[in-house]
């Protein structure tokens, strides 16, 4: 049977093995999916070991998504634009890097939460790896306007500059104002910062929300709670990152196996389990 795994540090609490095992069961695929912790500085060696053992692919999580994109001999356009990869396919002609985080987020918002992004005003908070991974696919969903804000303004400016040509092609107004200059209301607000983790305040004013706005934190579990509380307190519809997690996995599974798993069912099962 074919072998896959998730690589990261830490990786002990990753839900990916459970998700992929369930996908395999439900699609009748025979595969094994494990988890491997890699020490910092050992990423390339870890991948070489997987190749030697005949692994077919792996998912990459924190903090190796940048290294994964760099190490690969082949990069999909979206992995190239993100500068980060969460999926590696180990093929005879080398490593193929892809990034399904963004399409996973878009599918969760549009299909699971039922909120089409086309024509929408979207606010993306953060300009680190998590934001970089999703900005391209968000633009391709053709919102009318996408605003990126970040504590360190220059990083938002850089990220937006790198995506400006794509935004123009998609007919989306893409902007990176300083947080102090942020105004207006947004139908969809996405938190791609680690601010709740440290118990810090949500780094934007609540005036960005309007009643019924979708306010999504890319984290799940206790790490998302601060943001979800903030959303609820201001009349927004809160959503955690569990759906994005399942959808990015479904996209990876489809890439590897050529079969689309029933992601909505698996998301419902996982939610009931947690
Ligand atoms: P990741 O890969 O998870 O995105 P990262 O690249 O370190 O990790 O980026 C973390 C993001 O969270 C950044 O946008 C960071 O803001 P800075 O660029 O100013 O560092 C943001 N962040 C982390 N802690 C924060 C806090 N307490 N308040 C606001 N933003 C925070």
From TrEMBL:
UniProt xrefs under CDD domains: NAD_bind_Shikimate_DH
InterPro entries: Aminoacid_DH-like_N_sf, NAD(P)-bd_dom_sf, SDH_C, Shikimate_DH, Shikimate_DH-bd_N, Shikimate_DH_fam, Shikm_DH/Glu-tRNA_Rdtase
The protein's annotated pathway: Metabolic intermediate biosynthesis; chorismate biosynthesis; chorismate from D-erythrose 4-phosphate and phosphoenolpyruvate: step 4/7
Binding site for shikimate: 14-16, 61, 86, 101, 220, 248
Gene3D superfamilies documented for this protein: Leucine Dehydrogenase, chain A, domain 1, NAD(P)-binding Rossmann-like Domain
Domain Shikimate dehydrogenase substrate binding N-terminal: residue ranges: 6-88
Active site positions: 65 (proton acceptor)
Residue positions binding NADP(+): 126-130, 150-155, 218, 241
EC number: 1.1.1.25
GO MF annotations, alphabetized: shikimate 3-dehydrogenase (NADP+) activity
Reaction equations catalysed: shikimate + NADP(+) = 3-dehydroshikimate + NADPH + H(+)
Residues covered by the Quinate/shikimate 5-dehydrogenase/glutamyl-tRNA reductase domain: 116-195
Annotated ranges, domain SDH C-terminal: 241-271
UniProtKB keywords: Amino-acid biosynthesis, Aromatic amino acid biosynthesis, NADP, Oxidoreductase
Protein family per UniProt: Belongs to the shikimate dehydrogenase family.
Record's subunit section: Homodimer.
Function as written in the Swiss-Prot or TrEMBL entry: Involved in the biosynthesis of the chorismate, which leads to the biosynthesis of aromatic amino acids. Catalyzes the reversible NADPH linked reduction of 3-dehydroshikimate (DHSA) to yield shikimate (SA).
Alphabetical list of NCBIfam families matching this protein: aroE, PRK00258.1-2
Protein name, entry field: Shikimate dehydrogenase (NADP(+))
Species this chain originates from: Curvibacter cyanobacteriorum
Gene name as annotated: aroE
């Amino acid at each position: 049977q074919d072998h896959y795994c998730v690589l990261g540090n830490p990786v002990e609490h990753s839900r990916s093995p459970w998700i992929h095992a369930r996908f395999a069961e439900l699609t009748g695929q025979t595969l094994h999916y494990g988890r491997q912790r890699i020490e910092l500085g050992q990423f390339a060696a870890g991948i070489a070991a997987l190749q030697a053992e005949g692994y077919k692919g792996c998912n990459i999580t924190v903090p190796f998504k940048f290294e994964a994109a760099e190490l690969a001999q082949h990069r999909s356009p979206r992995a190239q634009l993100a500068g980060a990869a969460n999926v590696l396919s180990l093929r005879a002609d080398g490593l193929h890097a892809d990034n399904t985080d963004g399409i996973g987020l878009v599918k969760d918002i549009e299909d699971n939460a039922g909120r089409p992004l086309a024509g929408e005003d979207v606010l993306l908070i953060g300009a680190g790896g998590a934001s970089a991974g999703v900005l391209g696919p968000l633009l391709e969903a053709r919102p009318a306007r996408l605003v990126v804000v970040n504590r360190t303004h220059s990083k938002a400016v850089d990220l937006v500059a790198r995506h400006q040509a794509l935004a123009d092609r998609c007919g989306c107004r893409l902007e990176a104002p300083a947080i102090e200059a942020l105004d207006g209301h947004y139908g969809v607000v996405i938190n791609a910062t680690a601010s709740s983790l440290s118990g810090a305040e949500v780094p934007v004013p609540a005036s960005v929300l309007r009643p019924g706005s979708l306010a999504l934190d890319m984290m799940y579990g206790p790490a998302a709670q601060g943001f979800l509380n903030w959303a609820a307190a201001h009349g927004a519809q809160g959503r955690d990152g569990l759906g994005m997690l399942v959808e990015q996995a479904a996209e990876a599974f489809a890439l590897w196996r050529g079969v689309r798993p029933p992601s909505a069912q698996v998301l419902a099962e996982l939610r009931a389990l947690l």
